[in-house]
Design goal:
Blueprint (H helix, E strand, L loop, with lengths): L6 H11 L3 E5 L7 H11 L4 E6 L4 H10 L3 E4 L4 H26 L4 H28 L8 H31 L8 E4 H13 L8 E6 L5 E4 L1 H17 L6 E8 L3 E8 L6 H4 L21 H11 L3 E6 L5 E8 L17
Parallel strand pairs: 1-2, 2-3, 5-7
Antiparallel strand pairs: 4-6, 7-8, 8-10, 9-10
Helix pairs in contact: 1-2, 3-5, 4-5, 4-6, 5-6, 6-10, 7-8, 8-10
Length: 347
């Protein structure tokens, strides 16, 4: 992360560092936030811009959307709110980069059609979600309680569809069999703890006991930190969503000289033997998953990420006795063609 004290310095830093995401205060010295956002968008049309202001009005929010802002965060806000909007923004950025990679990497025609189709879905969904958010946050005045209920359903459906498009693109990239694109030394315990801390901010987690423990000194492994973050976010999120109120989710991290082990245990309904055979199939949703939102792509993505790192994922489960997902990862990921060094940047 890099910071700037005024808009002009911010433009220079954006030109130098090519950020994935920018947090923009509307009241900047020498250049207002909208002008700054337009300047950064000229450098990279896909950069994620999040506008922050203490003067939140409908007019300001609409102008931010027209300028290409991904989201709008009024002051004052809590740290959890900031983390949530940044997480959504970076997920959006990752999907955009995956789409660009398909177009720029000489992908087969079918993959290019998929990327174009995903973009055509995602762009209007993002605008729809922003407009709905403005209504729910009170920028257009009071909303009748019955109307609010219907609008909230529309918001949830839009979120679900956006997540589906992101997961779809991720799985398609992983299905190509490429190795991790960015390999660095990763503090596995810290990364898993971040996934646990993030899921604790969600409403479902407030009624559960969610904890992360280390069995021994885990050290670092060579891996794609972004891919592993997505892997453990999927597993911990699944555990929380399928565990009823009063239950618990426990994430254990341990390691040996050769490999590391991360176990995600829950006290949910468990998985039947017949469903157990199919849980890593794309779009499959078992009997216990009915009525719980999901894309049916989280576990297939998790499995592909683990395998791309030369690891394996096992499941121990029984109906009525919860589930335990075990992820074994080697200390050094097998290198494949296409693997490169790199980093994700934010401004």
């Amino acid at each position: 992360m890099v910071t700037a004290s005024d808009g002009q310095m911010g433009v220079e830093l954006a030109s130098r560092h090519a950020p994935d995401l920018v947090l923009i205060d509307l009241r900047l010295p020498g250049m207002d936030g909208m002008a700054y956002l337009a300047s950064v968008k000229a450098l990279d049309p896909d950069v994620v811009g999040i506008v922050i202001t203490g003067y939140a009005t409908l007019e300001v929010a609409v102008e931010a959307m027209k300028t290409g802002a991904f989201d709008f965060l009024p002051k004052p806000f809590k740290p959890a709110e900031l983390r949530a909007v940044v997480r959504r923004g970076l997920e959006h950025r990752s999907a955009a980069l995956r789409t660009s990679a398909l177009f720029d990497g000489g992908a087969p025609t079918a993959d290019l059609h998929l990327a174009a189709l995903a973009h055509q879905f995602k762009a209007p969904l993002a605008v729809l979600r922003q407009c709905v958010a403005l209504v729910l946050e009170g920028y257009v005045g009071d909303v009748d309680p019955r109307a609010r209920g219907m609008i909230e359903i529309a918001a949830h459906r839009a979120d679900h569809m956006m997540q589906f498009v992101d997961d779809w693109l991720t799985l398609c990239q992983l299905e190509k069999g490429e190795g991790p694109r960015t390999v660095t030394n990763v503090d596995l315990l810290a990364l898993v703890q971040e996934a646990v801390d993030a899921v604790k901010q969600r409403p479902q987690a407030a009624k559960l006991t969610v904890e992360c423990v280390a069995a021994n000194e885990c050290g670092t492994i060579q891996a794609d930190a972004g891919a592993l973050a997505e892997l453990f976010a999927n597993l911990v999120d699944n555990a929380v969503r399928y565990t009823p109120a009063g239950g618990s989710v426990r994430v254990e991290v341990s390691g040996t000289k050769e490999e590391t082990l991360v176990t995600v245990r829950d006290t949910g309904p468990g998985i039947s033997p017949e469903d157990r055979k199919r849980i890593f199939e794309p779009f499959f949703r078992g009997k216990a998953q009915k009525g719980i939102p999901g894309t049916g792509l989280g576990l297939p993505i998790a499995q592909r990420i683990v395998e791309a790192h030369g690891g394996r994922i096992d499941v121990q489960t029984a109906l009525g006795h919860g589930s335990s997902f075990q992820v074994f990862l080697p200390r050094a990921v097998p290198r494949k063609s296409g693997t490169r060094a790199g980093s994700t940047k934010a401004l």
